[in-house]
Model the fold of this input.
Amino acid sequence: MVWRERPLNLDHDIIPFWEGLKAHQFHLFCCRRCGAAYWPYAYCRNHDDIPELEEMEWRPTSGRGRVFVFNVVHQVTHPAYAGEVPYVLAMVELEEGPLFPTRIVGCEPSEVSIGLPVEVQYEDVPAAGHTLPLFRPRRG
Amino acid sequence: MPDGDGFARKYAIVGLGVKAGHFPGLSARTLQCEAARLAIADAGLNRSDIDGAINGRSAGGSEPSDGGWADSFARILGLPVNFYWTMGRGGTAGIIGLMAAVSALETGVARYVVVARGDDNWSLAHGRFQARRMAERLYGELGVGNLGFSAAASAAGIHAFFASRHMHEYGTTSAQLGAVAVAHRQWACLNPEATMYRRPITIEDHQNSRWVVEPYHLLDCCLQNDAGVAYVITTAERARSLGRPPVWVLGVGFGEQIRQLWWDKTNYTQLDVAPARANAFRLAGIELGDVDVAEFYDCFTGEVIFQLEDYGWCKKGEGGAFVEAGHTRPGGSIPCNTGGGLLSAFYLYDYTGLAEGVVQMRGEGGERQVSGAEVCLVTGHGGEILMPSMASTHACLVLGR
Done:
């Protein structure tokens, strides 16, 4: 099975994020009080009284950021990934603040560096009915 | 410095059981049973003495590597226990188990507690269970668990991030990571029980070993094997009446970086040593200079460098040079992972270091014994290999002779 087609097994809490991806929107979980953005799902950390859940909402965001840290996978843990090595895994520091784990695609591993500007690349997987949020070097 | 709260030397490890290697016929559960049986015998105790059992493992609930069983090693061994608990978190399971055992002893819920863990990772990867293992790995790497996306969810993938960031911020080199691997191998070459006994390596071997997840070469990664480790812990009075020299629990502490994950972004070059160390050293009534030997959680080479810095043996960012200078190897100023560690002895979470700590505090290390060692640091590290809870927990245990 192509790994991209593997069915997602989602918590209720994270479904809006994945629904957003299908519409090619990159949602983050945001605080209505102060606007702080979170991924993954979290209560806003900026208020010591712990805001009510109703004070948080999913909002579309830039889908842009920079590579915070990355590695290059050479040895895979499953044959489904074997045809793709070497590939780059990264934590992207989004413009809104959170870190997001993803793959960097659209360039050679040697072209990736910490600080590289990147943007989301929506990968529709029709066979599975979902869209994956991969990232690529920012264009322009 | 006075002992914190009179805790030090109230409890002691009195029995140790270790079974590590390749055992294709044995399940994780049976390896755990074997280790527990050996530990009880080592303590000079019998089945009827054991009234508490703890399965200290990587996650609190059922997990695939245990076959998802709710069954217990205590039932299989026929231990007449008052309780059987499964608990743990990543590579801190052995020390969490100790924490729970101490509370049972303190409250009189039990008199002798056995804490055990078993793993059949090698057999799963090489034997007839390979297909099942592969299915789990596909699930794992995609991380299609509760968060739906976790692109780096393998142990090497996650820990390579730590190393990559440390190299970026402090200029740590691959050769310095290699110096950790070489030092631990030097210790393993003195330990007949180590997987890599009499198989020395050089920095060149490290540099030439294949990439697993860059910046980690094969020789940056811990071993994979089948193993069981168990220990029996009891109160001071009971410990003194048994045949083996008591290994005293001096202090224990924990740190958790969940609060720093992904927002503070500080967890890529350090482990949450500070609160763990503070409480453990307070209870033990020690300072860093009192530690004679350190059994770090060395799942990958970078973690050793981080811990040397975070505990204070050197400044942040200088851990690579510290190891390169030979401080941690045989004859060095702070002997580390004296049995070879997870990198070169065998892998079983923090139980590997805990077992070696017991050996050192008993003075039974043979060629690798650190002469005159009286205080041993044992650490645990980890968490679920599912972002964002990746490797955020740290445990610190201080043992004494």
User: Anything to note?
Assistant: The longest helix of chain B spans residues 155-170.
